[in-house]
Design goal:
This protein is 51% helix and 7% strand. The chain is of the alpha+beta class. The protein has 3 domains: 79 residues, no CATH class; 56 residues, no CATH class; 95 residues, no CATH class. It has a 4-stranded antiparallel β-sheet with strand order 1-2-3-4, covered by helices on one side. Helix 3 packs antiparallel against helix 4 and helix 4 runs antiparallel to helix 5. The longest helix is centred in the N-terminal third of the chain and has 22 residues. 13% of the residues are buried.
């Protein structure tokens, strides 16, 4: 039964894709990288954990390629080793994710910041499930009533009070923020060029990254994948400028505002009340 269902689903996906291409000949289909990794992990279950980790890391490096030429060069290196060590997986990956219809899962196949999942609307679905349906299933009529009573009401109040219903700028992750704060002149050569352009070059490296604060772009791989990067965040903080594309944390951080500092600062035991101190 499982085989029939799997074949039926695969045929349905191909028929749906061909129908879309016939209606919209210029449409670009993107494969979800998350599902690529999941399928590869399932295929690698019979191998040891260290082998699985090495192969998954190599697949991520393939995914991070910035051009078709770079992807093919990296693939030639790893595929030669795969054919010797994991020949069955090598054949599977080559036919399914290199020659198949779903071979557009690299970062250069989509615009910077495009969701790596099936659809960018999944982020909106997450808000609906978390705030309105509370991760519970509803009938179609109950779901419509729920949207009319709560979702439409909230959006109407936002429009009435001239508040933003949805944030159009990207929200950087905490990891990227921490990496941005670690950038300084001790590990990078930083110079400013015209029109709010900042150039970064890491010490001991020849690669340079050009950040345009006006356009909200960078030339590094991280930006091509997520639509923001540590260089872009640091450039805005370095130039003390806000961004129209990325949410910049501009709050001041006061010294001595942590629990450790307060605990170290302490208080005198015999301190008199403030009004008695002359």
């Amino acid at each position: 039964m499982y085989v029939y269902v799997t074949v039926y689903v695969a045929i349905s996906v191909n028929i749906y894709r061909d129908a879309l291409i016939s209606i919209y000949p210029n449409i670009e289909t993107l494969m979800c990288y998350f599902h690529v990794v999941n399928c590869c992990k399932k295929n690698l279950r019979s191998h040891q954990a260290p082998t699985q980790k090495v192969i998954i890391d190599e697949i991520y490096n393939l995914h991070s390629s910035v051009s078709q030429q770079e992807f093919e060069g990296r693939y030639r290196e790893v595929s030669a080793r795969w054919r010797n060590e994991v020949p069955e997986f090598a054949r599977y990956f080559h036919t399914q994710w290199f020659l198949g219809n779903f071979n557009d899962w690299q970062i250069y196949c989509s615009a910077p910041g495009v969701a790596s999942t099936n659809n960018a609307l999944e982020s909106f679905n997450n808000i609906i499930k978390r705030c309105y349906t509370l991760n519970a299933r509803h009938s179609l009529s109950a779901l419509v009533d729920l949207f009319m009573e709560r979702l439409v009401f909230d959006v109407s109040m936002d429009l009435k009070d001239l508040r933003k219903c949805y944030e159009l700028r990207r929200l950087p992750s905490l990891e990227v923020k921490q990496k941005s704060e670690a950038i300084d002149e001790r590990n990078y050569v930083i110079r400013e060029e015209g029109d709010a352009v900042v150039v970064y070059r890491k010490h001991g490296s020849v690669e340079t990254y050009h950040v345009s604060c006006l356009n909200g772009t960078c030339t590094c791989r991280c930006y091509m994948k997520m639509g923001y990067c540590k260089h872009l965040l640091h450039a805005h903080a370095w130039l003390n400028e806000d961004s129209d594309y990325v949410i910049i944390d501009r709050r001041f951080k006061y010294k001595g505002n942590t629990k450790i500092t307060k605990r170290q600062r302490g208080r005198l035991r015999d301190a008199l009340p403030a009004l008695q101190v002359m």
